[in-house]
Structure formats: structure tokens, C-alpha cells
Amino acid sequence: MSEFLFYLVKCSICLILFYAFYSILLKKDTNYRWNRGFLLFGGLCSLILPLANIAYPFSNAGSDNISLSYYLNPIVLNSNSGVSASDYDYISIIFYGYLIIGAALLLKFFAGLFNLTLLITKSKIVSKEGKKYYLIEKEVSPFSFFKMIFLPNDEIDNSLLDRIIKHEQIHAKKNHSVDVLFFELIKIILWFNPFAWLYRKEVEAQNEFAADDEMLQNGYDISEYKHEIFDFSLLQSNSLTNNFNSLLKRRLKMLTSKKSSGLSKSKFLLTIPLLFLLIFAFNNPNNAKNIITGKSADSVYTTADQMPEYPGGQSQMYNFILKNLGYPMIAKKAGIQGKVFVEFVVNKNGKIQNAKVKTGIGGGCDEEALRVVKAMPKWIPGKHNGKNVAVKITLPIMFKLQ
Questions:
Q1: Cα–Cα distance between 384 and 387 in angstroms, integer?
Q2: How far is the C-alpha of 315 from the C-alpha of 153, rounded, in Å?
Q3: Residue 392 to residue 132: CA distance in whole angstroms
Q4: pTM, whole model, 2 decimals?
Q5: What is the largest CA-CA distance in the chain?
Q6: Which domains, ranges and CATH numbers included, belong to the chain?
Q7: β-bridge partners, 235
Q8: Which segments of the chain have a pLDDT < 50?
């Protein structure tokens, strides 16, 4: 649960950095296809890079002061109760809150697809130059969805209709609907991050700029084209489609913008150090594998593709600890409180090994915490590259006086 939330945070950081790079260096350029490619690349990297697991092996010999491990959420034992509350509950609240809002947005997304399907079934199909088009009864802006082009069922001048169709054909040919759906899903996954919503708008903008630019390259008059975009600007549009009337102000401005030089594309090379920065940030030495003894061929990991799990999940582990853990009387009388960090290894068979107090507070709290950790039942072992592996874990236990 907490791992997934941490993954979302890393995705958000990644997306923000790509958006910042785009806004500072690329947004005003007219390299529309390159910009689109960068935004797509950034979206994919934001989902994939936080999942990457690059291990940096090092020997334990001569470096006993180095102790890396995977940290669990802390658990709190209150002095005045046998059954104590832990502060892992807030993780559950955040997680289920995220799921509820995400599910609502996903439902809205599928509702949009369903409405689009109904629109297709109710539309009148006409043919023009051997290609099918869908005529809609509603007053909507012309739009495309994959290879399907939708037009309002109004009397439209033939030359204007031709230009609209050409514009939407560009969207269809470039598969811009894939971009729209992909970033709608990213927006749902990272709904709490405002940059995910801004990112989605910029992808739409670059696709519209590219279609407009290709229209002008094909010889269409810029003044007439501007008027046509403006005329359709007040009509209803669909968020899951490529709409002829979207982004009015920016499109009109970009139509007359000075073309970027070929040298401006060299800025895309700066993506390389950005990529290395993110790889380094998400795969630091805490992801290393640590050799326990020079004689053993077995490695102990601080992270794995599938982390070890207590039977029933972390909540059941906390329940076990709270049920069996006691607040030492000596510590109570001496007013001792604080966190005890217990480090242990879940071996390939799921057994607890090498349990020790990493940082203690005295008063018998260290021994009590260690006793309960050693008494835990077998875990579900971690897996890395499809094989069971030993994983080092640190559990903070908070002794709190009340």
C-alpha cells in the first residue's frame, strides 16, 4: 500500500520535471512533432522510471558502519493501554481516498467512451470521395476519434467542409487519439497532481498546432482558416476527441508565429541529462544488494521486484506486534520514550534472521522490541528476477508515554 503511494509520488515528480523542461525550453517553439514526441516520452518515463530497479552491488567487508535496509511504517505503543494505535492508519486513509476519487474519474472516462459509442450508432453515415463520415444532429464542433471523423449535420459550404475534413484527417493519420486516451489515463492515475492535467492540455495543443501547420503548408489561406477556427469556437466539444474548435487563442497566435530554426531542435539533447538525473534519483545506493558475509554466496537485498510480506499484510503484522508487545515498567518509571529501530532479514524461506536493534532508547524497550520481532511467524519471501531472495527490513517501533 505505502509502496504504491510512494510510486505515485515518484511518478508525479518525474512528470513535473518533464513538464518544467517542456515549459522552459520547448513550449514556444514550432517543432510540433518533436514536442509531441517529447511529451509522449515524458509520460511513458513518468510511469516506467519509478519502477526501474538498478542494483549497485558492494561488499560489506570493512564497512560495518554501512547498514541499508527497507523501512516499514512505524508502529506506536502507548504506555497506558495494552492495545495500542499505530500511525500506519493514515496510509490506509490516503490510499482508499485516492482509490475512491480515481475510481470516480475512471467511471467518468468510461462514461465518455460509452456516450461516444452511442453517438456513433445514432449518427448518419455519408460517403465522400470513397471515405465514410459521421453526421451528428447536435450542434457540436467537428472532431475525430481514431479514423472516424464526425461533422455537424448542418449546411456547410463545400470549400469549408473540405478544409475541416482535411484538418481532421491529419489527426486521424497521426493517431492523435492515442495521445488523448493515454494522457487521460495518466490524468486519472495522477489526478492529485495538477501538472498531470496541464500536461494533458499541452499534448492536445501540440497536436492541434501540428494539424494547423500542415494545413497551411498545403496552401490554405491563413486569414480564412483563422475565421473558420473562430466560427466553430463556441460549439460543444468532447474531451476524449480531437476537436476542431479547441485552444482558440493559442492556435490563432501560433498560426502567425515565426518558425523555429533547425538549431532549436538541439535542445532536445538536454533530455539525456534529465533522463540520467531521474534514473540516478530513483535508483540510489539504497537499492543496492548487500553481501552479509564474505563466505556466503547469498545476497541480501534492500529492495526487490516483490518485497516480503507478512501473512495477511502489514496491518496483520502490526496487530501481532501490538498484541504481544509490552511497555517495560522500568522505561515507564524512568520516563523513557522514543523510537526503537529493529533491523532483520526475511530469508529465502520467509524466516526472520539476524534480528538486531539498530538504534535503541534503553529502559528494556530495545529488548522487548527485539523479542517480539523474533517471535513473528514466517513471512512470504521476497522475489527478485523470479527467484526467492533474502531482504533486509527495518521496523521502527515507537514507545510513547501518556
A1: 5
A2: 59
A3: 62
A4: 0.65
A5: 92
A6: 2-52+92-114+172-280 (no CATH), 70-87+287-400 (3.30.1150)
A7: none
A8: 54-67, 82-88, 284-297
